[in-house]
Records
---
Amino acid sequence: MANERSDSQLQSGGSIGANNGKIAEHKVADRLHNVVDQASDKASELAARASDKASELAGRAGDKASELAARAKDSAGLQVRKVSDLIVARPIGAVCLAFGLGFVLAKLRR
């Protein structure tokens, strides 16, 4: 009987130890799951911030490009007006200049 009692005590003690091990394993798994969830949430938050900042910077760049394009268009229009005024003021000189440039370019192509 003494042997039977010690065998059953060992078996119940062994199962308690196994249960405690499983409980500890579940606690560790739960903590790990929580840490992974927190890391995932933080990564999503950082990605959203980066996306917002990139959109803001792209918007600024687009605005700046539009402004520069408008300036270039205005400048080109001004230069065309200046050349037109010069042609009107000196038509013979403009024709001679055009002829001379055409002649030089034709020679360079050969």
Note: The chain has one domain: 2-109.
---
Amino acid sequence: MRNFYGQARKDHLLGPVFHRVVDDWEFHISKVSFYWRRQTEGAPNYDQNFPLRHQPLHLEAKHFHRWLTLFRDACFHVLPATEAQEVFDIAYKVAQNLFGKIRPQDGELPRLE
């Protein structure tokens, strides 16, 4: 998570979004880490309404694609290739689901190239 957020905070597209809503980076990273443990290991540590928290950010497909690109890069930087791909596949499904809930008018999230 630290690798990813280190890149996302500096990113031209995602950085401004994160800086508008994240005041305490350690708390945010800890909270998001719990969420990803739940997604990858089934650990019941995250009880927030995930789509509701992202609705006011006005995210578009370009934000999701950039997030996925940085997340994929971070996964492959810190994990063995097979595990990185598994985590990225989960992340892509999460992104598709979130996009569908907060931008239903846009249909399905286009596949990342």
Note: Helices lie at 2-10, 14-21, 25-41, 50-54, 61-78, 81-102.
---
Amino acid sequence: MLASMPSPSALTPKTRSCVPYAISLPTWCCRTIPSPSSTRPRPFDSCQPSDRLSPRQLEVLRLLAQGYSTREIARRLKLSVKTIETHRAEAMKRLDIHEIAGLVRYAVRVRLISAES
């Protein structure tokens, strides 16, 4: 960030191209561009997890958030690893979350698990 802007007459042709200029946009332009928050719902908004996820997806999510591996969850629920991966992928899709860490944060936020566990 520059402390002070030099006057345009004090600039050489090379430095003149480096000075940022403010651009004024018409107000109609700003109104037609949707804000990022209005284009799609955030993963943590509105409904309870039980409104978006099946009971099995909630169970898989809870166990994932508690730190169990996919293989451990499959063994514990007596299901295949592929089935657990499918439940996890569908939960991620429905919640619009793209990584496991995001699922854990979501589980803590909606109190599927406590932050201490």
Note: Residues 49-109 form a domain with the Arc Repressor Mutant, subunit A fold (CATH 1.10.10.10).
